[in-house]
Design a protein that fits this description.
Layout lengths: L3 H25 L3 E2 L10 E10 L17 H20 L1 E10 L2 E9 L6 H12 L8 H12 L7 H24 L4 E9 L11 H11 L6 E2 L3 E2 L12 E20 L2 E18 L16 E15 L4 E14 L4 E11 L1
Antiparallel strand pairs: 1-6, 2-3, 2-12, 3-4, 4-5, 7-8, 8-9, 9-10, 10-11, 11-12
Helix pairs in contact: 2-3
């Protein structure tokens, strides 16, 4: 005679085991995506690229304890940096991905300045700032300063006049070069990756490689939603004159989700990269001490990349991309942060 309670208990255990197997199968069968480039041979995909500085990121200390760097010099340097930033923001940028060799994707970032900054005039201001204290100038130097302010070269000696003529010729050459460049783009980034997302141009300089990795490197293996990987960035670089004290690094790029838009599968990729470093200058073991550093030994850096990219799994190319890249440099008394927002889309 069959024992009904035993049979029911057996069926219950069997059902639980079956549910566990189904659950394990579902986990193991988690959907994966192949994020790789799919650009045809001789095809070029062009994006409108923009770069913008965020907040007062180009501030320079208004005063310095270093006697070699006066407030006047700092003011001119600050203006030069601000002009350069404005120049870059106003430029017309184009980012392209092209396949000129089977299996390789070439990345090229170019910009064109429509209103070049008067760097010659800024250099003239810097020269004036270096000789601002007229009371300590020699007669010849004082006459030269008067020339800079008024343009009157009557009382200049022949050596000074000859030097001024040479500088004017250099200035004209620079101005001509700037005019010749109008209408011609300047290359800001050149590198390449494999179709599977790995870096191909191993020879690319590190600052260029950082941008290349952020904007073109993809996971070489299939990934599921929630999976993370790292890319080949190194945002902080110190030489042999700096002694390490403390540091931290996080390099995490994550497939946040995959959404379907108008029948196209779009992978939303999140970037979370942080590097921090603190150390001190080794003043006792250097051949030459930079006089602009002063006597402050402490130095610290923090670099961050945060942003999102929207990559078409269906078409194998970006839909759009936005990322903040910031670097903070610190000493014992102050810090200076540069933050850029880069965006691009078709």
């Amino acid at each position: 005679m069959l024992n009904l309670p035993v049979i029911l208990n057996y069926m219950k255990i069997k059902t639980i085991l079956l549910l566990c197997l189904i659950s394990i199968f579902q986990v193991s069968a988690k959907k994966t995506y192949d994020l790789k480039w799919n650009i045809a041979f001789n095809e070029e995909v062009v994006y409108n690229y923009a770069m913008k500085y965020i907040s007062d990121t180009l501030s320079i200390p208004q005063e310095s304890n270093n006697p070699l760097v006066s407030k006047d010099i700092f003011d001119v340097l600050k203006e030069m940096l601000a002009k350069h930033a404005q120049d870059m923001e106003k430029a017309t940028w184009k980012l392209s991905y092209a396949c000129n060799k089977h299996g390789i994707i070439d990345v090229l970032l170019k910009y064109e300045n429509k209103e070049p900054v008067d760097y010659v005039g800024l250099l003239k201001d810097l020269t004036s700032a270096f000789s601002k204290n007229k009371d300590s100038l020699s007669k010849a130097d004082a006459e030269f300063m008067r020339y800079l302010e008024t343009g009157d070269s009557t009382n200049l000696d022949e050596n000074a006049k000859s030097e001024i003529k040479r500088v004017q010729e250099i200035a004209k050459s620079i101005e001509k070069e700037q005019k010749d460049k109008q209408g011609k783009p300047t290359v800001a980034l050149r590198g390449s990756v494999y179709e599977n997302g790995d870096i191909y141009s191993f020879w690319t300089k590190q600052d260029q490689l950082n941008l290349l990795a952020i904007m073109a490197q993809l996971p070489s293996q299939k990934v599921a939603v929630g999976d993370s990987w790292s890319i080949q960035t190194k945002l902080i670089n110190c030489d042999q004159n700096i002694i390490y004290k403390d540091g931290h690094r996080k390099n995490k790029v994550t497939l946040e989700k995959v959404e379907v838009v108008d029948g196209e599968s779009i992978a939303v990729i999140n970037y979370d990269i942080v590097e921090s470093f603190s150390g001190e200058f080794d003043f006792d073991n250097v051949a030459f001490k930079n006089p602009f550093i002063g006597d402050d030994k402490y130095i610290g850096f923090e670099a961050k990349v945060t942003g999102k990219g929207y990559f078409s799994v269906t078409k194998g190319r970006w839909k759009k991309f936005a990322s903040y890249i910031s670097i903070t440099k610190k000493n014992s008394t102050n810090s200076n942060t540069t933050t850029q927002l880069i965006t691009f889309e078709q």
